[in-house]
Amino acid sequence: MKTKRTTLGAMFLAGLSLACALNCVAAPAHTVAVAVSPRNSVSNVTLGDLRKIFSGEKRTWQDGSRIKLFSRAPGTTERTALLKLLGKSEMEYKQFWTAKVFQGDAETEPIVLPSNGMQREALTAYPGAIILVESADVKPGMKVLKVDGKLPDNETYPLHR
């Protein structure tokens, strides 16, 4: 009886390990979408312009309205994608924005939003807002921009993680 239970337990663990391995291999990469207010006339942005926007170099949209930057908290998929986009560590990012504000090149650093719901609210409240959001978390009221002519469901979309 004890041998039968041990064998069944070993088979269960082997099956569980195999299922986990298959699931880990088959899991899709996280994709981060670039979203703006539906009132924003922009529908496409280049990766270079996206870097300029999130580094505070580009401060206005094509129509002259001010860009309002929002980010997610450290440790989130969106923040990781932002740091990768800018080629900075978390510490370098914080130092970068502290220096920009201190030197008068920016009024404030991007506002950190703790939830996807708050991101959606920011897009509603600020017509010039731009956010990074996990593609799976895109909700009505979020206009997803193409990056270099590609949407997040495209294999060659530049913000796959």
Q: What structural class do the secondary elements suggest?
A: alpha/beta
Q: Portion of residues in helices?
A: 40-55%
**Relative strand content:** 15-25%
The description of the largest β-sheet is: 6 strands, mixed
Distance between the termini: 49 Å
* Coarse morphology: globular
* Order of helix and strand elements from N to C terminus: HEEHEHHEHEE
Major sheet: order of its strands? 2-6-1-5-3-4
Low-pLDDT runs: 7-28
Radius of gyration: 21 Å
Total beta strand runs: 6
Total helix count?
5
Q: Quick check: average pLDDT?
A: 84
Short description:
It contains five helices and six strands, in the order αββαβααβαββ. It has helices spanning 2-26, 47-54, 77-86, 90-102, 116-125, and strands at 32-36, 44-45, 68-72, 111-113, 129-134, 143-147.
Key attributes of the depicted protein:
41% helix, alpha/beta, 161 residues
Sequence-ordered SSE layout with sheet pairings:
Blueprint: H1 2-26, E1 32-36, E2 44-45, H2 47-54, E3 68-72, H3 77-86, H4 90-102, E4 111-113, H5 116-125, E5 129-134, E6 143-147
Note down, in words, how this protein is organized.
- This protein has 161 residues and is α/β, with parallel strands linked by helices.
- It contains five helices and six strands.
- It has a six-stranded mixed beta sheet with strand order 2-6-1-5-3-4.
- The chain is globular.
- The protein starts with a helix and ends in a 14-residue tail after the last strand.
